[in-house]
Amino acid sequence: MLSLKTCIELINVIDNYIPRVVDRIFVVFDIEHLIHPTLGKFSKEDKVNILLKTLKYPPVKGTFTDSFQIDLLQYMVDHFYRYEDKNGSSGYIGYDPNFGTVRYEDRFSYKNSSLANSLKRDGYIVKERIIKKMLPNEIEEAKTESELFTLLNKYSFSTTKGHLEQAITIHSQGNWAGANGQFRPFIESLLIDICRIILPNNKCENTNAAINLLSKTANPPFLRSDLNEVENPNCSKPFIEGFWKRLHPEGTHPGLSDEEDSTFRYHITIVVAYYLLKRLSSRT
Question: Which residue has the higher pLDDT, 98 or 207?
């Protein structure tokens, strides 16, 4: 399932299509009933907005596979190479990393970088003209925008949510170091917010305090030593502290990064945050 951010980026590409190409999408995907003349007169902008609504709440199946969203994306990739690409038959494009440029696996991704970056956060990549999965289904489901943001909204974690929104926006722009700089405060803010829900009478202002309170003061412990999430006699290198250090290996500043490292930080951040919020939801 594609996130809302990716759906919006996808629609931004379709926005540049000429009207007859937009109309053809409705025919190919068997949704022309949504713009039937008996329903009124629809401008190109109207039709594009209808496509966005359909992407947000897609049919059970697409025309070619079980996913309407992926089918539409593949249709757009095919359209690009059939009508827009002027660089020959190869779909591969790469850059010399010594020049500090971003490497895209496909010219479609290069021409639509914001969409490509958003797709990677969702666990997909366009390579050799084909949409390929980067992650298992379980991780994709755990990190979808709608599920995570629903939980953040449930507890009114507005500051925490803001850090995540900024990380997503900055990552889409290809600013890897800037995105990294938001993952760390996002997790810190999340742990503090959780602590304030479970232990409202305890002062908590930083990550170390939150980890200590959630593992030692909370009853039962929110962060569990039996799962090696926090330090215990049988584990001197616990998961939560290791995860926290992985988010800022260069120290307290965001640090330089590349696309793969930043996207990895995003994936692991989303998975851990979702897991902790689901645990909080089952407890409150």
Answer: 207
Among the candidates 73, 104, 134, a domain finishes at 134
- Cα separation, 268 vs 265, whole angstroms: 5
Per the listing, tokens 């996808």 go with 10
* pLDDT for residue 98: 44
Structural domain for 70, as ranges? 4-134
Question: CB burial class (10 A; 0-12, 13-18, 19+) of residue 164?
Answer: buried
How many other β-carbons are positioned within 10 Å of the β-carbon of residue 125?
18
Residue 67, pLDDT > 50, answer yes
Q: Are residues 76 and 157 in the same domain?
A: no
- Bond from prior residue into 220 cis (ω within 30 degrees of 0): yes
For the ranges 27-31, 62-66, 187-191, which has the lowest average pLDDT?
62-66
Give the DSSP H/E element, type plus range, for residue 210: helix 207-212
Q: Are residues 104 and 233 in the same domain?
A: no
